[in-house]
Amino acid sequence: MEILLLFFKTILLRPYVFAFLAAFLVSAIALIGWPRTWRFWLISWITAFVCEFSSTRNGIPFGWYFYNGSTVGQELYFSNIPFMDSISFSFLLFASYCLALLLLLPVQSSSCADTTSRLPDLKFDLPLRTSWPVFALTILLFAFIDMVIDPVALRGDRWFLGKIYYYPDPGVHFGVPMANYVGWAVVGAISLLIYFPLDRRLQHPLPDHRPSTTHRLLLGGGLYYGVLAFNLAMTFWIGETLQGTTGLLMYVPVTAILLLRLLAPATQSA
């Protein structure tokens, strides 16, 4: 009963996290179905929790950092790790996966494509969606977004997150050690190295991808940019202009490439 009460307190304290979690569930179920969704979530959550548990005790793989326990009794913790923190890895990894697929998946041939859509219809074949290029780009995008998230989270005492953790040795990237981003890449790599082979073995059919896979991938891509926009907004709100501008400029090339890929077929057919 106490765990259930703390869970509801966590929802009330962190509604934005659970809004992103709900968006993940909707987009993931639409794209890969429930059997794959719960496995993806469980694998990535357990991996993130184990890595955080390890890093707060021996500095591997994120480097040394510590939760200060300032919200104990206000939200759910597993050991010394806030639940909301570890579940964030799951929806961010899925959002990164969707964005990587939007950037890398080949377009269906014109004979198979949905001609009523102005967007390219991307192929979601198993060998393509579990390929090494998708694996590598997902990990890169996953670590990339934390370069926006972690610096503003570290300043949580200046907005409604609160000061919940600290680095004993502040790093060069707005106080965040570079080892932290390596840790994010490790979490992403381990999670996908477990999930991709599982995806290849699962016999559960995918949901019907009509009108196109692209529309469903855009839900996950929208989640990625939603989290990005939220954290950039918090960064500018607390007055960290240089930090926010740096984060914004990081995503100009990625966004330009994505828009060119999605809108070029429509431009050509106009």
What does this structure look like?
This protein is mostly helical and 270 residues long. 67% of the residues lie in helices and 3% in strands. It has ten helices and four strands, in the order αααβββαααβαααα. The chain has helices spanning 2-13, 15-32, 34-58, 83-104, 126-129, 132-153, 178-201, 213-237, 241-250, 252-269, and strands spanning 66-67, 77-78, 81-82, 165-166. A two-stranded antiparallel ribbon has the order 1-4. The protein has a two-stranded antiparallel sheet with strand order 2-3. Strand 2 (77-78) and strand 3 (81-82) form a beta hairpin. Helix 2 runs antiparallel to helix 8 (213-237), helix 3 runs antiparallel to helix 7 (178-201) and helix 4 crosses helix 6. It is globular, with a radius of gyration of 19 Å. The termini are far apart.
The overall pLDDT average reads 93
- Give a count of the beta strands, DSSP E runs of length 2 or more: 4
The string of secondary-structure elements, in order, is HHHEEEHHHEHHHH
Shape: globular
Largest sheet: 2 strands, antiparallel
Radius of gyration, in angstroms, nearest whole number:
19 Å
Helix content: 55-70%
